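Quick start: what a row looks like.
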Amino acid sequence: MSGRLTPHHPRPNLRSAQRPERLRAAALGTVLVTLLAPALSACGGDAASAGGSSTLKWTSSYFPTHWDPVVGGSGAQFRELALVYASLTRTDESGKAVPDLAKSWEYNAKGDEITFHLRSGLKFSDGEPVDATAVKAAIERAKKQKNSALFGDLTSIKSVDAKGLDAVVHLSQVDYQIPQLFGQRVLQIASPKAAKSPEKLDQNPVGAGPFTVTQIVPGTKAVLKKNPDYWDAENIHIDNVELTSAPDSSTVVSGLQTGVYNFADIDPSQAGAAKKAGLDVFVQPGFNASNLSLNVNKAPFDNDKVVDAVRHAINRQEFVDKLTFGYGSVTNQPFPKGYVAYDPESENSYPYDPAKSKKLLTEAGYKPGKLKLNLVIPAEDPQAEIVQSQLAKVGITVTIKIDKNWATPFFAKDLTFSLYGTTGRDSAAQTLTAHFGPNGPLNLSSPYEPAGFEAAIAKVRQTPLDSPDYAKVLQAATRAGLESKALVFTYSQPNLIAKSKSISELPKNPAHIDWTGVTIDGN
């Protein structure tokens, strides 16, 4: 992951990450303003307008708080920012890095330098050239800008040389993860001219992506039009986009039915209603995982027995049963089962065992009811209530406290006990270091790091992605990370999307929303 959490939870709850990639705290705006595009009829009006243009009407519970990709980080909102910004690479349906602004790349023999070759003739929407100088500026800004959410993801980057259309990236260590890292989640590239004023860029994004912004109502709505200068414009068949902040989840399905929207991410609780309404509901593969965050630098979690007591008190299946409506699964890792980084050997670590939990608490010196914890979260979240109930069963009293400014103490590592969820990263090494590394943004216990993790993750970086040993090496790093006492993972669920049947199928790129080749009513 990288610098930010994006609050994660079923809709009315929180989602952390990238200033919480899912404690979804703040993202639910309630608004709809008069749309600029031609009015569409109440039902089925999401087709093309009379003039033949097609409009995507997307309501999102992750509406961007920031439009500067350096500040927005790599949380769930990167999907919306990808309308405006392109990256050096993108992710295909297998999860591998493929060309985007860069047409190709190669490492040197040692593996500590990688050269990206950019496509020729490209421009940002303000007319500035897309060249290696722009790439160098984007990387340096992500590393150095004071409010960057991405600097922690770029620790392998020593320097960048700009040579026309060739960006030569010098690394501080052998790292074969860079093509995965430089995709939409971490390196969405803005015009260096516009980025000279980050505050203005934050409200007036300038990129080289498939669309350009014509209007933004902060926190509420963005209106975009197709970018004719996008490198793959011939495969973008949508003319206009109206992106709005999602209202309460219970009203999204009716909005889709009446044509107010034609595309929306939905909560699992709404999937059944969406299907009954005749909408297309599809599961977008992803790397989502929710967890409890413990600060081992603060009492009582500086006592290993208390940490283990919490681990054994958690019944993961209850989260799945109550929150995912059949779409989720238990996980004790920052990855769902089936993903290359998921470690089967760690699957049964710390099983649900309330009797053992009580015994550990007694050994730690806490009689039933004597251990009291504050669980601090950014918004109401049913996950918190489940945690409260489960810990009560072993004699731990939990008080849920809501702090709308939760992100500040979380990232300052001032909280003792919290929740968040992650949408994962295209680079598995990035996901692991974000959770378990000493400077990991999702490690509430920084600078704590589990023994053996540093060496294990270094080996991952040193292993080419096409090596036959890559999966084994990666899973070993996951195993080392899971020795951490700072995280208790609970469940995973995919991203659910509901859309009008007028919109064609989308590419099934894990965790990404890709509009390449997508049509609306055949346009």
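That is the whole record. The radius of gyration is 23 Å. Confidence is low (pLDDT under 50) at residues 1-47.
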